[in-house]
Sequence to fold (299 residues):
Amino acid sequence: MRGYSQARMPELPEVETTIRGLNSKVLKRTFVDVWSDWEKIIKKTKDFKLFKKEIKGKKIIKIWRRAKNIIFDLSEDYSLLVHQKMTGHLMVGEWEQINNKWRPTKKGPLEEKINTFLHVIFFLDNGQMIALSDLRKFAKIELWKTKDLLNSKDFSKLGPEPLEKGFTLQKFKEILKGKKGKIKQVLMNPEVIAGIGNIYSNEALWWAKINPQKSVFELNPKELKLLYHSIKKVLLLSIKLGGDSFSDYRNVEGKKGYFDDERKVYKRENEKCSRCGALIKRLKFGGRSAFFCPNCQRL
Fold:
């Protein structure tokens, strides 16, 4: 695909879509067993048998998101954290094992090839299952004491959530004040703002007409305001459309999201800008690709 990998990590809208799907299907259910053919996915608890023993009997009290992490708050003050990484996605359904292969018991989207790389399956008390499909096997699952998770180093250093009420324009300006580096890289730093990755940083910058290479300190008040509203706009739109399924992401039913149709610049190199007609360009810096319109987003 034009010389670069299609795989990309699910970002805030995809994770939020997954959270909402899980809440509608498995809330208040209890884990009765777990299967895995790739036990390395289970982090923190090195012994899979111990993990299995600890997860059994735990009831799902709450399911929420922090940055790109999915957290199941469980009974007995435990929390199960799932990070889907590059190609992982959680699905809810029923599968049966035929000739050592897990296959959905019903016809439909769960049969799609990208949904068949099952490496972890949680069995619930009502016969349903939560399955992790992960082509590259980069995802991670961790069982924590809830208090320890909330106080963990990785959690405590995360930046604010861009869709929370407290994330005001003033807060946004304060966060960026004194930050060094190019605006696209800063937006993607989870310690600055949680959950924004490559696709939505590109899209927000296009809507705000800001070049991704522009240094943060060069942004004027008007640009900061435009960018603030653009971030919220693209994230909320993508959530409404069920996320972006340009690569591997699927929702809990195994279905694609529809933000792919709304992308203005991401993966649209050499296509015409929908605003001015100039050809979309791609450049690499900081180890990531930046897509932008050289006319609308001039330095």
In short: DSSP finds eight helices and 13 strands in the chain. Residues 1-5 have pLDDT under 50 and may be disordered. The radius of gyration is 20 Å. The longest helix spans residues 221-240.
